[in-house]
Design brief:
The chain is of the alpha/beta class. It has helices at about 20-30, 65, 70-85, 90-95, 110-125, 135-140, 140-150, 165-180, 195-205, 245-250, 275-290, 305-320, 335, 345-360, and strands spanning about 5-15, 35, 50, 100-105, 155-160, 185-190, 235-245, 255-265, 300, 330, 360, 385, 390-395, 400-410. Helix 3 (about 70-85) crosses helix 7, helix 8 (about 165-180) packs across helix 14 and helix 11 (about 275-290) packs across helix 12 (about 305-320). It is globular and about 60 Å long. The two termini are about 15 Å apart.
Length: about 425
């Protein structure tokens, strides 16, 4: 018999907040975390805005010596994981068997700032001056590695690198590990820190990002006729997943239950999404959950605010849901957080869990003039109270990687 899997802890690190209460409060007020880039000089860049994390303080969690050996994305991941464990009231070494606790925190790009710094040293000072910590700081799996080291989790340890689908793949794969009995607890989600000179330059070259530099808080506007590209964000979203049996034994507080996971590949194009692939992904998750499309109350859309992407996702929802597409509530919280790339799925799964717990759908901010080709219910600008029972979160990445998870309001009996 498959184990039931529940969410017992959450940790968030974004421009909208570095704790759950602040983060959720800002979402409910439809605030934007976007502003001018301050991490480096953007004078020559077409895009000069992003959702940066301000006043990030790692010192309550680890010292400066340890921080110098972690890329910024790893620092975000470790802090979010420690916050999630605290939220779950779980001490791995005391409350459970460390060999039954796994870590699966992915990153779409990894340690880009470390790569840039060390390449500059290579060019200016030569190979002998490159840091011995360059490789272990830069590689994408080091978020999971450092979390394991700092928490004592000795169970399954892995990393997804599937662009913007990374966080959702990490959570979905973790769900399956617990479901089949490979672990009792998984620390899972995503982390990203690519607001760097090459990161921003690369996405600018793709012409994928908004250039609404004069009005940063209005720049991310999914499904709106005025959208002109996504806004880059940074941070981490981490969930603590547990088997229901394990959570019940220790009297854990439960946010929601994970009931479905789907994944698919477009086999189509590097950057141009195929609605058929996204639709198949959603239907796979629905089938895995043992429900019908009509039972989904809310979808946290991938909704990046790109002209092509938002229309493609709208088409995909119609393909997957039929007539119910016009009845299900949909919103894109990237309108407030920006697009956290590999961390997006972790943050948005967390949002879905909070939406179920609080009975409130977060809005799509800046949706003032809805695109006629995006004609579904996108919950514009203000949150909506709702009796949510089952919700879905979508993540679609470059390369045609698609991931969907489904969460359900927790009930003791199935």
């Amino acid at each position: 018999m498959n184990q039931r899997v529940v969410i017992t802890g959450m940790g968030v690190m974004t421009s909208l907040g570095q704790d759950l209460d602040t983060f959720w409060g800002n979402l409910m007020e439809a605030k934007s975390g976007v502003g001018p880039i301050e991490l480096f000089d953007v004078t020559e860049y077409p895009t000069q805005i992003a959702a940066e994390i301000k006043n990030f303080n790692f010192e309550p969690f680890f010292d400066k010596k340890e921080a110098r050996r972690m890329d910024r994305f790893v620092q975000f991941a470790v802090v979010a994981s420690l916050l999630a464990l605290k939220d779950a009231s779980l001490d791995i070494k005391v409350d459970t068997d460390p060999e039954r606790v796994g870590v699966y925190v992915g990153s779409g790009i990894g340690g880009l700032s470390t790569w840039e710094e060390q390449f500059k040293i290579l060019l200016e000072k030569g190979p002998r001056r490159v840091s011995p910590f360059f490789i272990p700081m830069m590689i994408a799996n080091m978020a999971s590695g450092q979390i394991s080291i700092m928490t004592g989790a000795k169970g399954p340890n892995s990393t997804a690198v599937t662009a913007c689908a990374t966080g959702t793949h990490s959570i979905g794969d973790s769900y399956k590990m617990i479901q089949r009995g490979d672990a009792d607890v998984m620390i899972c989600g995503g982390a990203e820190a690519t607001i760097t000179p090459t990161g921003v330059a690369g996405f600018c070259a793709l012409r994928a990002m908004s250039t609404r530099n004069d009005d940063p808080t209005k720049a991310s506007r999914p499904f709106d006729t005025g959208r002109d590209g996504f806004v880059m964000g940074e941070g981490s979203g981490v969930l603590i997943l547990e088997s229901l049996e394990h959570a019940t034994k220790r009297g854990a507080r439960i946010y929601a239950e994970v009931i479905g996971y789907g994944m698919s590949g477009d086999a189509h194009h590097m950057t141009d999404p195929d609605p058929d692939g996204a639709a198949r992904c959603m239907l796979k998750a629905i089938k895995d959950a043992g429900i019908t499309p009509e039972q989904i109350d809310y979808i946290n859309a991938h909704g990046t605010s790109t002209p092509v992407g938002d229309r493609s996702e709208t088409t995909a929802v119609k393909k997957a849901f039929g007539d119910h597409a016009y009845k299900v509530a949909i919103s894109s919280t990237k309108s407030m957080t920006g697009h956290l790339l590999g961390a997006a799925g972790g943050v948005e799964a967390l949002i879905c869990g909070l939406a179920l717990k609080n009975g409130i759908i977060p809005p799509t901010a800046n949706l003032d003039n809805q695109d006629p080709l995006c004609d579904l219910d996108y919950v514009p600008n203000v949150p909506r109270k709702a009796d949510l029972q089952i919700v879905m979160s979508n993540s679609f990445g470059f390369g045609g990687h698609n991931a969907t998870i489904i969460l359900k309001k927790f009930a003791e009996s199935v």
